[in-house]
Design a protein that fits this description.
This protein is α+β, with helices and mostly antiparallel strands and about 400 residues long. Helices cover about 40% and strands about 15% of the residues. The chain has 10 helices and 11 strands.
Length: about 400
Amino acid sequence: MGAGHVPVDRLPEQQLGRRLVAIPLALIVAITVVDIHSPPDIHLGPLLVIAPALTASLAGPRLTALVGALAVAAQVLIGVFHGGLTTPNHLSQIAALTLLSALVVFVCHVRERRSRELNRARSVAETAQLVLLRPPRRRIGPLRVAWLYLAAEDETRIGGDLFAIARSERGTRVIIGDVRGKGLAAIGEASMVLGAFREGAHHYDTLPELASGLEVSVCRSLEDAADTENDPGEHFITALLLDIPDQGTQVEMVNLGHPPPLLLHDGQVTVLHARRPVPPLGMCELPAPSHRADPFTFEDGDTLLLYTDGVIEARSPEGAFYPLTERVTSAPTSGPEALIRHIHRDLLNHVGHEPGDDAALLAIERYGAHHLHRPHITGHPPLDGRRRLDSASKPVPGAPS
């Protein structure tokens, strides 16, 4: 997830678990003392197995083995005070406790090994996300940027949604897209589109040319990138392209079957429906589409909200879709990061859990051409975070009425 990092001030789990080991140690002492002072016909020693079993849920195998050994020693001590170690009852209790403690340690060892493997897999997934997405800096030219990425696959950080920002001397080009399908199976196609965009954004002079170049690249590489073995169905990628100049307020948009972006201006929200929509990328059997850009005004203080259908198709427990446009109207206006955080919290409250589909949000605010930092212009910036409204909304220049 992007849009900043909020530090959490708490003890690490391992340190906290080691402190809680005092509980099973206290149980060993209490059971031993009570058993020694109980009549000979009362046997509390078997309860000592609780100590290593409880430790296994709090610490690793070494500490669990130590507590298990202390429990066995306590059982031996109880046997000394109750008839000696030669009685069949005490011998069987010691043997059973030793065996059970060894079994608990083994299970704890297996669990810890799997936990290490899972942590390595998470680390690889996070690295892959950074390599694949290369999330943008928070400030790019005259723009402030914040983002959010939620992956559908459990224990992963990447999926089939994508976004990227490429800088040039004239301005900023943006793509946000959604591969049909979700999770790990869609990563190959997402990577293909991102690579084609990052290369084409610096080679094509106009946005329609860039869109046509992406279509050619996708049709050439889709068969190799798509996971056709596990997903033999149709493969395509919806995408939205923007060309935001550093100077001036006229932005161009090409929408290739993607949900329309939202424009926030003076407290009003406008849905930027495409005047000339074209099919998604990868519909290679269709005639080559004619890509033409739709212009709209993007002034200082305005914010663009780009998103994938995983956001607007997220359902509440009652089955209602998430009303993004309505919720954005009441969102804070203190910057793109606050907007993204607000939508994230509101989306989780609406669904009740993490969305079941990949979801991505990208908020872009123009905050003045006088904030330009020319030294930061680079081809690959380093990392950093449906409903149409009524006629009271700010009109979109060139859009149909």
